[in-house]
Write a structure and sequence with these properties.
Strand order of the largest sheet: 1-4-5-6
Number of helices: 6
Distance between the termini: 36 Å
Order of helices and strands: HHHEHEEHHEEE
Number of strands: 6
Helix content: 25-40%
C-alpha cells in the first residue's frame, strides 16, 4: 500500500511530513475522483505506519508493564519478562509478518495485521493465562519471572527473590512451570 511504499523508500522513521501528506492527498483524490470535495473538509490525515518486529516488541513491553502494574502487590511485587521471551511473543509463531521490498533496495518485514493480535488475544493472552494459572499462590513480595529458553523451545515461569538483579544468573529462582507456549 501507499504508506508501506513511502516507508520503504525513505525509511520508516525518516519520512518527511510534507511528502507523506502530499502522497496521501493524491491517493485520496485518486480514490474518490477528481471532484474531491471532501478534501476541503479534511484538516489532517493520520496514517498508520506499518509495524515491524521492533515496534511490536515495544508494544508487548508496554502491555507487560501494564499487567505487572495491575497485579503488583497482589500477585507479585512485579512481573519481569526476559528479552528472549519478548522476542518469542513478537515472533512469527504468534504474529503474521509480510515481506516488502522497494525498487531502491530497501526492505522490511511488517506485521500483516498491525498490533490487533496483541490487544485482544494472541501472545499476550497466552502470557496472562500462563501467569494466572501457574503463579499461585500469590507472592506479593517476590518477582514473577517469565523466561523463554530458545535452545529448548520452552517457556519458564519462576518466582525470584527481589534483589534488583532478577536477570543475574546467580539469583536463586524457584521454577513453577516449564513447557510450550500454546493456547492451552
Amino acid at each position: 500500500d501507499l504508506v508501506t511504499d513511502i516507508a520503504l523508500h525513505y525509511g520508516r522513521e525518516e519520512i518527511p511530513k510534507m511528502v507523506l501528506e502530499a502522497q496521501l492527498r493524491e491517493e485520496m483524490v485518486r480514490h474518490w475522483g477528481g471532484n474531491f470535495k471532501l478534501g476541503t473538509l479534511v484538516n489532517a490525515v493520520v496514517p498508520f505506519m506499518p509495524l515491524t518486529n521492533l515496534q511490536l516488541k515495544e508494544i508487548i513491553t508496554r502491555r507487560i508493564q501494564a499487567v505487572s502494574n495491575q497485579y503488583a502487590l497482589q500477585y507479585w511485587k512485579r512481573l519481569d519478562v526476559t528479552t528472549a521471551a519478548k522476542r518469542q511473543l513478537a515472533g512469527q509463531n504468534f504474529i503474521e509478518y509480510e515481506f516488502f521490498e522497494h525498487s531502491n533496495g530497501n526492505s522490511m518485514w511488517i506485521s500483516k495485521y498491525g498490533a490487533h493480535i496483541l490487544i485482544g488475544g494472541g501472545p499476550m493472552h497466552i502470557l496472562i493465562s500462563k501467569v494466572r494459572r501457574h503463579f499461585t499462590p500469590h507472592r506479593p513480595h517476590e518477582i514473577a519471572l517469565f523466561d523463554y529458553e530458545e535452545e529448548r523451545r520452552e517457556a519458564v515461569l519462576s518466582w525470584c527473590i527481589d534483589q534488583d538483579k532478577v536477570f543475574d544468573k546467580n539469583i536463586k529462582c524457584e521454577e513453577v512451570w516449564r513447557g510450550l507456549l500454546d493456547y492451552v
